[in-house]
């Protein structure tokens, strides 16, 4: 059997012609268009380059990814107390009422085991096939993913699967929690394409923005998050969609971090599909097309700047739309130049979302660790301290290497 190997270099970036930003990620896994409904998988890193054709069609992979997200939402977020034995009302949702689920450890352990099996099933489906190239690639990739060494993984894919929620075979792990890719490794979807942004002067404090729905001001640790941003940065607070859109129209947006604390929902776009939209305190929809329009005509030169890290803490905002459809908000922010977007891929409970935001922002503003390191540590912290797996539902789109840099 012949193993395909080559020097790890892809100057065409999957035949797009755009060179990727250099990254120290250990493995890059590309799911790239190959032949109509078919994809090819390309794995590079660790002095290896492997390629194989996928057996599962693109549309089926999209559906399986959506199914896995739906299972997390149904089995965990909307888990009901059947007869009140959890100390809650019959039919309540006890796993959504607090971030610390230690008292429900028996329940969460069982659900995590089920979800780990489902995550492994999706990973196995991606790697289906008995062609020699696929057997070789599958063996190499699974060996790397199941190893004890934590890796930095970049999935560069035209099909956005919920990568942190995928899993290796739980039977190989001491506990099902350890099977998830987001627990074992740092994970990002897609690497960033860089361009020369307008430089900023060396600063003593970061500039941040809080783009919020005031109806959520009193939820959980939301007041603590607001105070943290106020104490640790130069904070801009926006409560209306028009204020946000006006800010995005500026040629130079000198924010190091943008935080969204609002609701996300799917709005009918007037055609056969929907587009993910967020709203602040007012009723104005802020979606991908709206923000793209605001920066239309602003050139990507050193006279313009849009380079924040974005924590988009609104339900479903970590999801991407299918190729050829209107881009969701997170996708457009990446295209506009954001160094990374971290967002939930399902409808996370508000109490958990506020707790997660505090943990991430406190660490990111300290400037000591990258977004990839912080997101993985939060997965482990919530799992080990609180028996809560919901940090796995937050997807990092670009930004695995992002770190607060006040020297610009």
Describe the overall structure.
The chain is of the alpha/beta class. The chain folds into 2 domains: 189 residues, no CATH class; 192 residues, Rossmann fold, CATH 3.40.50. It contains 10 helices and 16 strands. Strands 7-6-9-14-15-16 form a 6-stranded mixed β-sheet, sandwiched between helices. The protein has a 5-stranded mixed β-sheet with strand order 3-2-1-4-5. Strands 10-11-12 form a 3-stranded antiparallel β-sheet. Helix 1 packs antiparallel against helix 2 and helix 9 crosses helix 10. The N terminus is likely disordered.
Brief summary of the model shown:
With 408 residues, the protein is α/β, with parallel strands linked by helices. 31% of the residues lie in helices and 20% in strands.
CATH architecture title of the largest domain: 3-Layer(aba) Sandwich
Question: What are the secondary-structure elements, in order, as H or E?
Answer: EEEHHHEHEEHEHEEEEEHEEHEHHE
Please identify the top-level CATH class of the largest domain.
Answer: Alpha Beta
Task: Give the helix proportion (percent range).
Answer: 25-40%
* Distance from first to last alpha carbon: 50 Å
Q: What integer value in Å does the Rg equal?
A: 21 Å
Number of DSSP helices? 10
- Based on DSSP secondary structure assignment, what is the total number of beta strands? 16
Q: Domains counted in the coordinates: how many?
A: 2
The major β-sheet equals: 6 strands, mixed
Structural class: alpha/beta
What general form does the structure show?
Answer: globular
Proportion of residues in β-strands: 15-25%
Q: What's the overall average pLDDT, rounded?
A: 88
CATH fold topology of the largest domain: Rossmann fold
| Order of strands in the sheet with most strands | 7-6-9-14-15-16
Uncertain runs are 1-23
């Amino acid at each position: 059997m012949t193993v395909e190997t080559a020097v790890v270099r892809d100057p065409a970036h999957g035949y797009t012609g755009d060179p990727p930003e250099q990254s120290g990620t250990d493995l890059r896994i590309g799911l790239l268009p190959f032949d109509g409904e078919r994809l090819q998988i390309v794995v590079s890193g660790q002095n290896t380059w492997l390629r194989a054709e996928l057996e599962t069609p693109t549309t089926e992979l999209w559906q399986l990814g959506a199914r896995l997200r739906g299972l997390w939402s149904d089995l965990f977020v909307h888990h009901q107390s059947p007869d009140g034995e959890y100390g809650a009302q019959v039919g309540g949702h006890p796993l959504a009422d607090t971030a610390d689920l230690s008292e429900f450890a028996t329940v969460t352990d069982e659900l995590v085991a089920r979800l780990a099996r489902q995550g492994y099933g999706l990973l196995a489906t991606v790697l289906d096939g008995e062609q020699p190239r696929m057997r070789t690639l599958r063996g190499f990739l699974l060996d790397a993913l199941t190893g004890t060494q934590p890796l930095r993984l970049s999935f560069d894919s035209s099909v956005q699967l919920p990568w942190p929620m995928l899993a290796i075979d739980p039977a190989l792990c001491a506990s099902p929690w350890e099977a998830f890719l987001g627990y074992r490794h740092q994970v990002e979807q897609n690497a960033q394409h860089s361009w020369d942004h307008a430089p900023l002067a060396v600063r003593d404090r970061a500039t941040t923005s809080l783009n919020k729905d005031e109806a959520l001001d009193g939820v959980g640790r939301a007041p603590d998050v607001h105070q943290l941003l106020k104490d640790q940065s130069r904070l801009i607070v926006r409560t209306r969609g028009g204020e946000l859109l006006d800010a995005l129209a500026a040629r130079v947006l000198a924010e190091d971090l943008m935080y969204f604390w609002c609701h996300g929902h799917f709005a009918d776009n007037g055609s056969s599909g929907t587009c993910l939209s967020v709203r602040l305190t007012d009723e104005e929809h802020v979606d991908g097309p709206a923000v793209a329009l605001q920066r239309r005509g602003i050139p990507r030169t050193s006279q313009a700047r849009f380079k924040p890290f974005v924590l988009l803490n609104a339900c479903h905002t970590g999801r991407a739309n299918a190729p050829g459809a209107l881009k969701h908000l997170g996708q457009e922010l990446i295209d506009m130049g954001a160094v990374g977007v971290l967002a939930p891929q399902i409808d996370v409970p508000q109490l958990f979302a506020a707790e997660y935001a505090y943990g991430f922002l406190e660490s990111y503003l300290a400037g000591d660790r990258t977004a990839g390191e912080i997101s993985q540590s939060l997965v482990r912290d919530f799992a080990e301290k609180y028996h809560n797996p919901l940090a796995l539902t937050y997807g990092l789109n670009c930004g695995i290497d992002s770190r607060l840099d006040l020297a610009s």
